[in-house]
Sequence to fold (146 residues):
Amino acid sequence: MYHHFASKDALFIAVYEVVERELLDAIAASAMQASDPVEMLRLGALAFLDAAATPEVRRISLLDAPAVIPVETRRALSEQYGLGMVLETLRSIDVEGRLLVHPVDALAPVLLAALHEAATAVADGADVESMRAVVLQLIDRVTSSA
Fold:
C-alpha cells in the first residue's frame, strides 16, 4: 500500500482525512436531530466529545495527528472539515439574534479550538461528563436561549 503514497506521513494524512470525514458525518447526523441551531451546536459538540473517546478518533485524530501532521496542514484540514460546520451553525444562531459574542468569523475558530481541546482532554483520559458540562456551559455563554 505504501507505493501509492509519497511517504508514511502522506499515508497517515489520507487515513486522517477519512476519519475526519466520517467524524463530521456522525456529528452532522447528531446535530440534525434538532431544528434549533443552538441545540444543533450543543448536540454536535457532545457528539464530538463522545467520539473523542472512541479508539479510532482518539488515536488518529487527537493523539497522533498533532505529532505527524504539520500545523499548517492540520489547520487547513480543520478549516476544510470542522470549521465550516461550526461557522455555518454560528451564522444560523446569529441570524436569529441569539449569538452573544461577535464577530462570527472570529468566534468560530476560537470555539472550535475549545471543542478540540476538550476532545483532546477526553482522549487523554479526562472525565467525559465533566468535559461535556464545561462545553455546554461555554455554548450557553456565547448564545442565548430562544
User: Anything to note?
Assistant: Residues 98 and 144 are 5 Å apart (CA to CA). The mean pLDDT is 92.
